[in-house]
Write a structure and sequence with these properties.
Blueprint: E1 5-12, H1 19-26, E2 32-38, H2 44-54, E3 58-63, H3 68-71, E4 81-87, E5 90-92, H4 94-105, E6 114-116, E7 118-125, E8 131-137, E9 145-148, E10 152-156, E11 167-170, E12 179-181, E13 194-197, H5 216-220, H6 224-236, H7 243-249, E14 255-258
Parallel strand pairs: 1-2, 1-4, 2-3, 6-12, 7-13
Antiparallel strand pairs: 4-9, 5-13, 6-9, 7-8, 8-14, 10-11
Helix pairs in contact: 1-2
Length: 272
């Protein structure tokens, strides 16, 4: 039997403010990193190209449609692979991921189809990366994406982006309910699998004002009229309240946490 591996897939578009940190923090966690640049026009493409040059197990794909990112994962269905989806506004704790990697590869979560981690949905971040404020999961939903592809034979149907939509065909003993919600049993301070979700902050040097960018699932979901108006607002640079994000990521009280471990200083040519 093949040994388990961890496949990271990063899908970004115009997210040059945090993409570099997001990718560097998962470099040692993943055996392979698939970088998907969806037609970026800011500095994101250059950042990804530079990362690909120094991370030997990273590959860059320039895609025209976010649905193409899911196609890159089809070959892993039915293999001993964990697939880890990361966005350009998701900063993971690399030391925690190192501990999680050991747990994953020794089979601690092999009975689960999906593992969900702890999240702070950040509304305020200290520029030096020492403190952040926001809303924790729970009570917010966890948006982490870590899936056991050994649990499925395929994942077909329309997927607007990787690991969203479609229909996974489960192997015997697994179902969509085979989930391990670590965020519901482990406190933020004790979590190995935890993320700063910078969903309420600017993600690109080209973003204007204080508007919060619409989520892809928000654009794809809802009525046809809602999808059209959301797209037009994004094209025109008009601020539109992110209802989808506010409903899911602004629950509970605001908490403050220290964040130094999320922003370690990496040497030039950061090795694996």
């Amino acid at each position: 039997m093949k040994s388990a591996q961890i496949i990271g897939i990063v899908l970004v578009r115009n997210e040059d403010l945090f993409t570099g940190q997001a990718v560097k923090n998962i470099t040692s966690f993943c055996d392979k990193i698939i970088l998907c640049d969806h037609r970026s026009t800011d500095g994101t493409t250059k950042i990804l190209e530079d990362l690909t040059a120094v991370i030997p197990h990273a590959e860059l794909h320039k895609i025209r449609d976010p649905a193409d990112s899911h196609l890159l994962l089809k070959k892993y269905a039915g293999t001993p692979a964990w697939v880890f989806g990361v966005d350009g506004d998701e900063i993971y704790d690399p030391a925690g991921l190192a501990r999680l990697r050991t747990r994953l590869l020794r089979g601690e979560f092999s009975d689960s189809w999906a593992v969900f981690g702890n999240v702070l949905n950040v509304t305020e971040l200290d520029p030096a990366g020492r403190h952040a404020a926001g809303h924790l999961s729970p009570p917010c939903r966890s948006m982490t994406k870590l899936y056991n592809f050994a649990a499925i034979d395929s994942w077909d149907g329309f997927c607007p982006e990787r690991l969203h939509g479609g229909t996974p065909r489960f192997r015997k003993g697994y179902s969509a309910l085979s989930r391990c919600a670590l965020n519901e049993s482990v406190a933020w301070e004790d979590a190995d699998f935890r993320c700063l979700h910078l969903c309420f902050l600017r993600r690109s040097s080209s973003d204007t004002g204080e508007s919060v960018r619409a989520n892809l699932m928000e654009i794809q979901g809802g009525s046809r009229f809602s999808r059209i108006t959301t797209r037009i607002a994004a094209i025109l640079g008009i601020s539109k309240k992110p209802k989808w994000k506010n409903e899911r990521y602004r629950r509970g009280r605001v908490v403050r946490v220290t964040t130094e471990c999320f922003f370690p200083a990496y040497p030039a040519g950061h090795p694996r």
